[in-house]
Amino acid sequence: MTSFVKLANRHSGKILTIASVQGCDIYPVPSCDNRRSHDKMAISQRQMREQSPGRSFTRTCRGIALLMGLAKAKNWILLLGFLLCLICSDWAHSANVTVFASGLNNPRGLTFGPDGNLYVAEGGLGGDLSTVRLCEQVPAPVGPYTGGFTARISKITPDGTRSTVVDDLPSSATAPDTGGLISGVGDVAFIGDSLYALLAGAGCSHGLAGTDNAVLRVNADGTTTLVADLSAFQKTHPVQNPNADDFEPDGTWYSMVAVRGALFAVEPNHGELDMITPDGQIRRIADISATQGHIVRTAVAYHGNFYVGNLSTFPIQDGSSKILKITLLAK
Q1: Domains in the chain, ordered, with CATH?
Q2: I want to staple 311 with a disulfide (CB 3.0 to 4.6 A). Which of 25, 27, 102, 296 is the partner?
Q3: Which of the listed ranges 3-7, 117-121, 136-140 does the model predict with the highest average pLDDT?
Q4: What is the pTM of this model?
């Protein structure tokens, strides 16, 4: 297995195995973009390709791909660094790529567990439930959302067999005019033998009354335990510079890593990096909006310091994306 990298393509619902990576280009297709600010433009794939043949997205996705690779496991730093790059490129159609596992529903973050299996967060399929007139909604044209309980976490064994670890988790979709883009389980991470899930598709503003975006602990019997309520935290701890025209009351949590026995999650819509402890404490590490504004930060990795990559808003301007280094100070 050391000569292969396994990665998730959220649109095809497959895990791909790639051998001998040599390089790639990124083309601006939907699987490269962020689950937020891209919604507002609702640009078709053909229109996106007509805007400069991928140079801005090449830089953006390569940077984010590197961060994703650093975030996962020491033995896979270099290989997983090409995660998004390879999904979005012509390499995904080359002889170097074979399907390792399929049957996934909008796969998102993935990590190897201590048992050697691959664990995949899935966004799910959304649903028809609505909370219009019940609570604050996401502004049009992104909202209002509809939702259901179709997200899950899958386990992929070394022979490519998929099984469900936990299902019936919140899943939501943006308004049809923006393509019905899906949020569900955003990422997964292990602390020791315990699996944790980052919910991104829950919350009343996502069409699911009585739910909240949160960090969950996955139990051995397939149930979950609430660790920290992220929706409630964001509502009582607003960032300095939220974007009113692109505001998500419950957030759209995107990426999570485990460091020093705690979890660190990045949220692109509000613009923050937060620490969540296994006993449920939440502490903001950085309000990125305070200095950077609405730059849509989508990936976080830890390598001595935290590194946060951003997508920026559409239309993408060449050179607008960056990687920020954030130092964790003792407190």
Answers
A1: 4-326 (2.120.10)
A2: 296
A3: 117-121
A4: 0.74
